[in-house]
Write a structure and sequence with these properties.
The structure holds three protein chains of three kinds. Chain B contains twelve helices and no strands. Chain B is mainly alpha-helical. Chain B has a domain of 154 residues: MetI-like fold. Chain C is mainly alpha-helical. Helices cover 79% and strands 0% of the residues of chain C. Chain C has twelve helices and no strands. The chains are: A alpha+beta, B mainly alpha, C mainly alpha. At the A-B interface, helix 2 of A face helix 7 and helix 8 of B.
């Protein structure tokens, strides 16, 4: 596998705060990589170091095999889309998209052609004369994408590109960005705090916390097998149990089953724990039931079960239930 | 305007009377045909305007004032805008101290600054009065240059400048093609404010006058003290007209209340 | 990076030092031909001399009165304008700001026309038969108060307006909805929330009033001497550098003390 970019032992220290702590990271060529994590995990700082806006305190960053640690942003040839879009408010859409080409002294005729191409790619060729202020958030987002792509960058960097859009537009733009990635064949690095976005869009996902990489891999590899409790919680695992050996395991809410008697439903291999219903939340398709229970080590736990609405037993808070924990879905976790 | 606040409304009316009515009396008096500041005026004529425009001390000091205001406003911006950039964008150690220093001419009484410059630079150091005036007015305009352009700079998303860099623009090119155009309203506001403040200044210019170079307000002050005729009313009306013109320009461009009151409506 | 940033600041800083900071400090210690320490000795004598004391007291007293009058008239203007939905509010606000742009010589000259012995008010009083001869209104404390109020009222309006505009009008409505009447709402919601802004406005007016020159010079003359007119006399008529520097020091200390007190008040207001 070839690499579009490579972090080697990179740290970023602000005063006594370590934003990025000695990370090694390979960004694969021609794929979409997401940096995923809660705010303050170091994902945006990493992106800004890759783009050249921040010099690493330690370590090296190479782009397309060339050490670029000290290269200023204007000589890295990377396309960046900012969270605020950062369109130039005093220039038309076409001038925004053509700005990078002008800096590269591309002749006017070529420039016009490439601006149109880029705007066509995002479906906005008809708005080339407008000022950014006149556009909707989604349209501004597309102009920012077109502007970044027009310079034919080595990498496309997207900093939380969807966080300022409303929910429906966000879903739509996920597919749009995938399509553009596929059509251009660019390596894309996308920073996000939204695990659904990362799962849906990534070829490769990198989970970060406290400036360190927690886990890296394809969504298909990471999701069923979170490496530690942080990754599990971040990906929506709610239930944490200590097994007989004292190790922590986790299981997703939809894999728990509840019954009013111990033997139904037919038990798979695994544990059956007694508990008391604390809360029942009806959500149309499914029902979320919170149960106070104790795991095999005897520790008190609260478990969340996500049941299909049509097959859920009729439960009210205070009812005694049995929680079925199938062994096949239990995921062992490493210590954090 | 009907009001549900009768007490506040009558105080407000009183306030407007004190602020504006004396100015109206100046305007009326300027058109008198008589030769004193008598009220009501004796008939209508434009003779005092003619007198004001042909009175050499007024015309030469008007030119001096305009020149001084223009040069010192340009100097203050040329020196102050880089400071605003350093404070808001650069890696400046002790940036609040630096900003405070450049705002400090606003706190020290202008008459005191005038005395300090007169005593130390003119009498003590032997600078001529135009050089001293220029230095003094420039320093007096620093707070406007630094604060007004700084406020305008703070409204520009730094990501816009980052974006230009990422697209291949050098820091200098980024400043010229992105920062400067976005800063234009702030620069314009600061320039107008500086110009007006310098043009109207008395306390600083007072001690720094010489026979060769005096500003209009200082000449008017001297004239009023010695003569009691409507020529000053006429020159006042001309200044009023010029000031209205500046206000209209401000309103048409950046917004009058925003430039001169710091108010965004 | 750091080096380049310093280069941006240096030219301005050099001018600031040469044309402001160094002369201001040197003025206290070495006026031309004066031995160091002379300024402070002179200051000590001035503070015990009844003539100079009277000037300080007059300056402080008139400054205080002007401050109270400016806030008393300016705050209501700002309040009504900030709460008005009328399309005239913008025009009235502009009319209150406009005098800030107009030369203080022009504005003060207006009072000569109004208050002078042949001016509007004395002539009106004569015509109405209320007085036998034109009363002396110029060169009185009243003339100075009127003149300074005209000069600094726009400042009070602008500063109060900025403070009031930040008080959400929704809070007025919330208080009314909770049963407070108009007066109660004003005193228990609007005034406390705009208070710090009013302190700033009062400080600006006071600092301006005790250091203004044009108005005391034209309307007070030599009969109503204030610190500023006295400073000018010392430095251009009698050329008494020590006295001029000492007067400048008194003025500066006054202004700094009031600014310091007001920012202290603002900080205490913010924490309580």
């Amino acid at each position: 596998m070839t690499h579009a970019a490579r972090f080697h032992g990179v740290s970023q220290v602000f005063g006594d705060f370590t934003a990025v702590d000695n990370i090694d990271l390979d960004i694969p060529d021609g794929k979409l990589t997401t940096l995923l994590g809660p705010s303050g995990c170091g994902k945006t700082t990493s992106l800004r170091m890759l783009a050249g806006y921040l010099a690493p305190t330690r370590g090296t960053i190479s782009i397309a095999g060339v050490d670029s640690t000290r290269t200023p942003p204007e000589r890295r040839n990377l396309g960046m889309v900012f969270q605020s879009y950062a369109l130039f408010p005093h220039m038309s859409v076409a001038d925004n998209v053509g700005f990078g080409l002008k800096m590269r002294r591309v002749p006017a005729a070529d420039r016009a052609r490439r601006v149109t191409e880029s705007l066509e790619l995002v479906g906005l060729a008809h708005l080339s004369a407008s000022k950014p202020k006149k556009l909707s958030g989604g349209q501004q987002q597309r102009v920012a994408l077109a502007r970044a792509i027009a310079i034919r960058p080595k990498l496309l960097l997207l900093d939380e590109p969807l966080s300022n859009l409303d929910a429906r537009l966000r879903i739509q733009m996920r597919a749009e960005i995938r399509r553009i990635q596929a059509e251009t064949g660019l390596a894309v690095v996308l920073v996000t705090h939204d695990q659904d976005e990362a799962l849906e869009m990534s070829d490769e996902m990198v989970l970060m916390k406290d400036g360190r990489i927690q886990q890296q891999g394809t969504p298909q590899a990471v999701f069923p097998a979170p490496a530690n409790r942080f990754v599990a919680e971040f990906l929506g695992y709610e239930n944490f149990l200590t097994d007989a050996g004292g190790a922590t395991t986790t299981i997703r809410p939809e894999h728990l089953a509840l019954s009013v008697s111990e033997r139904t439903p037919a038990a798979e291999t695994g544990a059956v724990l007694p508990g008391v219903v604390l809360d029942v939340a009806y959500r149309g398709v499914d029902v979320l039931v919170t149960v106070a229970s104790a795991d095999v080590s005897g520790a008190r736990v609260e478990l969340l079960a996500d049941l299909r609405a049509e097959s859920a037993p009729d439960l009210t808070p205070g009812a005694d239930v049995w929680v079925h924990v199938p062994a096949t879905h239990l995921v062992p976790l490493a210590a954090d | 305007m009907r009001t549900r606040h009768p007490i506040a409304a009558s105080l407000a009316v009183g306030g407007y009377v004190v602020m504006l009515v004396p100015i109206l009396f100046v305007v009326v008096t300027a058109f008198t045909a008589g030769s004193t500041l008598r009220f009501p005026p004796d008939g209508f004529s434009l003779r005092w305007f003619e007198a004001a425009l042909t009175y050499e001390p007024f015309t030469s000091s008007l030119l001096s004032s305009l020149m001084l205001a223009a040069i010192s406003a340009v100097l203050a911006l040329a020196l102050g805008v880089p400071v605003a950039l350093a404070v808001h964008r650069g890696a400046l150690p002790g940036r609040s101290v630096v900003e405070g220093l450049f705002l400090s001419p606003l706190i020290v009484p202008e008459l005191v600054v005038g005395l300090a410059l007169y005593q130390q630079l003119m009498v003590g150091f032997g600078l001529d009065n135009f050089q001293t005036l220029l230095l003094g007015h420039t320093v007096l305009m620093f707070p406007y240059a630094v604060r007004v352009t700084g406020a305008s700079l703070a409204l520009i998303d730094p990501a816009v400048e980052d974006a230009a860099r990422g697209l291949g623009a050098s820091p200098g090119r980024t400043f010229l093609s992105v920062t400067l155009p976005l800063l234009r309203p702030g620069l314009f506001s600061a320039a107008l404010l500086s110009f007006i403040t310098s043009f109207n200044n008395v306390p600083l210019s007072l001690l720094l006058q010489s026979r060769d170079f005096r500003t209009l307000p200082v000449v008017m002050l001297d004239y009023v003290q010695q003569n009691y005729d409507p020529i000053v009313a006429a020159i006042s009306v001309l200044i009023l007209a010029g000031t209205v013109l500046v206000a209209v320009i401000a309103e048409r461009t950046v917004g009058f209340a925003r430039v001169f009151g710091g108010i965004n409506r | 990076m750091r080096g380049r940033t310093a280069l941006l600041v240096l030219p301005g800083l050099a001018i600031l030092l040469v044309a402001f900071l160094i002369p201001s400090i040197a003025m206290l210690f070495s006026p031309p031909g004066i031995s160091p320490g002379e300024v402070f000795a002179r200051l000590g004598r001035m503070l015990t001399d009844p003539y100079d004391q009277a000037i300080v007291v007059r300056t402080l007293g008139l400054g205080l009165i002007v401050t109270v009058v400016c806030i008393g008239l300016g705050y209501p203007i700002a309040y009504l304008l900030s709460r008005s939905t009328s399309r005239w509010a913008g025009v009235l606000l502009a009319l209150a700001i406009f005098p800030l742009l107009l030369s203080s010589v022009v504005r003060t000259f207006g009072w000569l026309v109004v208050l002078g012995s042949q001016g509007a008010i004395p002539q009106l009083l004569l015509t109405l038969g209320l007085v036998d001869s034109a009363p002396q209104l110029l060169y009185t404390p009243l003339a100075i108060v009127l003149g300074l109020t005209q000069i600094f009222l726009p400042l009070a309006v602008v500063a109060s307006y900025s403070a009031l505009a930040q008080v959400d009008a929704g809070l007025d409505e919330a208080a009314r909805g909770l049963g407070a009447n108009r007066t109660r709402t004003f005193w228990s919601v609007v005034v406390p929330l705009s208070g710090p802004g009013v302190v700033v406005a009062a400080t600006l007016v006071f600092a301006g009033a005790v250091t203004a020159y044009t108005t005391p010079y034209l309307l007070g003359g030599s009969r109503q001497r204030m610190l500023s007119t006295q400073l000018y006399t010392y430095s251009s008529t009698t050329i008494d550098w020590a006295a001029a520097s000492a007067t400048a020091l008194i003025m500066t200390v006054l202004v700094f003390a009031v600014s310091g007190l007001s920012s202290l008040a603002a900080r205490r207001g913010a924490t309580s």
